[in-house]
């Protein structure tokens, strides 16, 4: 059985843009721009290891949640 994603050797720029730190910066910008709920989720995809969503997600892959109280 083959792996779900092919092996990837990311460029330094892609490594920076795909980092958790970058996902946090994107989430903070979205939150500051008016999003009232933001989640950072691990995807398991080496080309997009983190995804920032403008909703609260329930599940084990959630890294960070931001909510306006």
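^ structure tokens above, recovered residues below v
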């Amino acid at each position: 059985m083959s792996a779900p994603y092919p092996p990837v050797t990311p460029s330094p720029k892609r490594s920076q843009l795909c980092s958790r730190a970058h996902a946090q910066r994107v989430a903070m910008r979205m939150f500051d721009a008016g999003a009232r709920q933001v989640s950072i989720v691990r995807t398991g995809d080496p080309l997009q290891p983190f995804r920032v969503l403008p909703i609260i997600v329930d599940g084990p892959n959630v890294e960070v949640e931001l909510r306006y109280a």
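The two ends are 47 Å apart (CA to CA).
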